[in-house]
Design goal:
It is built from four helices and four strands, in the order αβαβαβαβ. By secondary structure, the chain is of the alpha+beta class. It has a four-stranded mixed beta sheet with strand order 1-2-4-3, covered by helices on one side. Bound molecules: coenzyme A (COA). Coenzyme A binds near residues 30, 32 and 37.
């Protein structure tokens, strides 16, 4: 089932993402423990990371997420929506489609 849905999604182009390595070479992933969300831990971590990238003269950073909540978090951190694509890949498991978002920020 997993493989079949994976192949269908692939053929529909749902795994396509634009190349961001030139303008946004750094990537950011974050997952705060549920018990510690909403206490500015994420904001402080991202601020430190962005400062580090600036010191290292990295020109941009991007992140990939399917989380609707994270959209506000990234927008507030100065990221812009670069790309989004709907995916049916996990429909058999989640009983719904989801949207994959790519956010980026120039530094
Ligand atoms: C998204 C995530 C990183 C936010 O971290 P956090 O420490 O809880 O966020 P902060 O407390 O620093 O919040 C900063 C801002 O983000 C926004 N925000 C954070 N969580 C939010 C939520 N659940 N819904 C809407 N906005 C949210 C708010 O605008 C908030 O500012 P405010 O407190 O002034 O309102 C955290 O919830 C998380 O790890 N989620 C699960 C994993 C995930 O989605 N990762 C992103 C993909 S890489």
């Amino acid at each position: 089932m997993f493989l079949l849905h994976g192949i269908c999604s692939f053929l529909k182009g749902e795994f396509f993402t634009p190349s961001l390595s030139r303008e946004y070479p750094a990537i950011f992933h974050i997952n705060i423990d549920k018990n510690f969300r909403g206490f500015s831990v994420g904001s402080r971590l991202i601020e430190k990371y962005l400062n580090f990238l600036k010191e290292e003269k990295v020109c941009g950073v991007h992140c990939v997420t399917i989380s609707e909540e994270a959209k506000t978090f990234f927008t507030k951190a100065g990221f812009k929506l670069l790309f989004k694509i709907k995916s049916t890949f996990l429909r058999f498991r989640l009983y719904r489609d989801f949207t994959c978002y790519i956010f980026g920020r120039k530094l």
